[in-house]
From TrEMBL:
The keyword NAD appears for this protein: no
Region annotation (Disordered) ranges: 80-101
Superkingdom of the organism of origin: Bacteria
Keyword terms of this UniProt record: DNA-binding, Pyridoxal phosphate, Transcription, Transcription regulation
Species: Yimella lutea
CDD domains: AAT_like (cd00609), WHTH_GntR (cd07377)
Family of this protein: In the C-terminal section; belongs to the class-I pyridoxal-phosphate-dependent aminotransferase family.
Ranges where the HTH gntR-type domain occurs: 19-87
Protein name, per record: GntR family transcriptional regulator
Length: 458
């Protein structure tokens, strides 16, 4: 894999530091590697090509590459040029989403995880966080509700989106799944049934069961079915923004209809907005559900827009519920790591949603998968946001397709994995498009073979 001089120049940008040019170049490439914009194994442009692209001397490029080599970020070989390496070696991909409790196998291609790589600027945000950390080290480091800086940044984002919010309405959590468990612990009774849109996110189902609640599925985007179910169950958890796995987005009309139903039923409504910022085409003109119903409890997360490794989420709630949420929060743990919170605070203040480069990458990957599925005779609504495509297969063979894919070295989740009650949906398949376009290209031959072998091609 190679990166051109012009592409590397666009990544480095024009915002040059006041220090030596070679350090600006070296630090910029190092940050791009940390962010995932320049990948392990990428061959850097030759010094003769990069120097004019950056309007510096060839000697400056030589010194920049020497600094990168000294720090362990490059390897130079005679005749092969300078190649990016990760200090300590290339890491594995980490564990996937729930997959029958099997450990991740690094030898297999992974079309399971619906989470993108780290956002550009992540390392810089951590570096700024380190500069701020000294303000907190004199204390004990326990912030069960979250550090004030981050709570203010989250509150400001809701205010900017049309729902005036104070920092005292925000509880920072260790991810969205943790937020679900906290909210259910604080606001519902043990062993009670809780409605959840089906198909639903497997980790949400696990979080509900983990706190002793019983998930009951209701059809996605069907307010009438939810109204009928609420006659029997008094709490619901709804995903409104680019629902995982379907990618559906609730418009203002549906939000207003749901608000009317919840007010009439006296429902405790928990709304997951984890994917709200993952629009890919045109930014949707919708307000948070709390703008329609002030009693709504809202859940958000940094994992889909900034990086899953941050492990930070949050709850936005009416002030009268924050005390109960705080008590429930302490039953899970004593707070999230301060440095990660400082880094997220910086990211939310500089770019709260997807980075433009990430949006371009996701669109490219989505379009490749979309074209592939259409050629196979699969059907789906083309998602304008979110991180996956929810396919209806020509015949109910989703589990067979996933098994055939694994024989081809490709991990996938069939539609049945997203059934809230654990049954059905064998006519469906979720394909995340969070791999880079070139990685998607590597996946498609194995997926085509699996689809043909399982009878899932028209």
């Amino acid at each position: 894999m190679r990166i051109s001089a012009s592409r590397l120049g666009s990544i480095l940008g024009d915002d040059r530091s006041d220090g030596p040019a070679y350090l600006w170049i070296a630090d910029g490439i190092r940050a791009a590697v940390a962010d995932g914009r320049v990948m392990h194994g990428t061959r850097l442009p030759g010094e003769r090509d990069l120097a004019p692209a950056l309007q510096v001397s060839r000697t400056t490029i030589t010194k920049a590459y020497a600094v990168l080599a000294e720090r362990g970020y490059t390897r130079a070989r005679q005749g092969s040029g300078t190649t990016i390496v990760l200090p300590g070696g290339r890491p594995d991909e980490g564990d996937a989403e729930p997959l029958d409790d099997r450990p991740a196998d690094p030898r297999l291609l992974n079309l399971v995880q619906a989470a993108p790589p780290a956002t550009p600027g992540l390392q810089a945000a951590f570096e700024k966080g380190l500069e701020q950390l000294l303000r907190f080290t004199a204390g004990r480091g326990y912030y069960s509700l979250g550090i004030p800086d981050l709570r203010e940044a989250i509150a400001q984002r809701y205010t900017d989106r049309g729902v005036p919010t104070g920092a005292d309405q925000v509880v920072v959590t260790t991810g969205a799944s943790s937020a679900v468990g906290i909210a259910l612990t604080a606001l519902t009774d043990p062993r009670s049934a809780v409605l959840l849109e089906s198909p639903g996110y497997p980790n949400t189902v696990q979080a509900m069961r983990g706190v002793g609640r019983r998930p009951v599925g209701v059809p996605v985007a069907d307010p009438a079915a939810m109204d009928n179910a609420l006659a029997r169950v008094n709490a619901c958890l709804v995903v409104l923004d680019f629902q995982n796995p379907t990618g559906l987005l609730a418009d203002e009309e549906r939000r207003a209809e749901l608000a009317r139903i919840w007010k009439r039923r006296g429902t405790t409504a928990i709304v997951d907005e984890t994917l709200v910022e993952t629009w890919l085409d045109d930014e949707p003109q919708v307000r948070p559900m709390a703008a329609h119903h002030p009693g709504v409890i809202t859940i958000g997360s940094a994992s889909k827009t900034h990086w899953g490794g941050l492990r930070l989420g949050w709850i936005r709630a009416p002030r009268q519920l924050v005390g109960a949420l705080s008590a429930a929060r302490r039953s899970f743990d004593l707070g999230s790591p301060v440095l990660e919170q400082l880094a997220l605070d910086e990211l939310l203040r500089t770019r709260p949603g997807l980075h433009p480069d990430m949006r371009v990458m996701l669109r490219g990957s989505r379009d490749r998968l979309w074209q592939f599925g259409i050629e196979c005779g699969w059907r789906a609504l083309a998602p304008s946001g979110g991180l996956s495509i929810w396919w209806r297969l020509p015949r109910p063979r989703g589990n067979a397709l996933a098994a055939a894919a694994e024989r081809e070295g490709l991990l996938m989740l069939p539609g049945s994995a997203f059934a809230v009650d654990g049954r059905g949906l064998d006519s469906f398949l979720r394909t995340p498009f969070t791999l880079r376009p070139d990685e998607i290209d590597k996946v498609l031959p194995a997926l085509r073979t699996a689809a043909e072998n399982s009878g899932c091609v028209e």
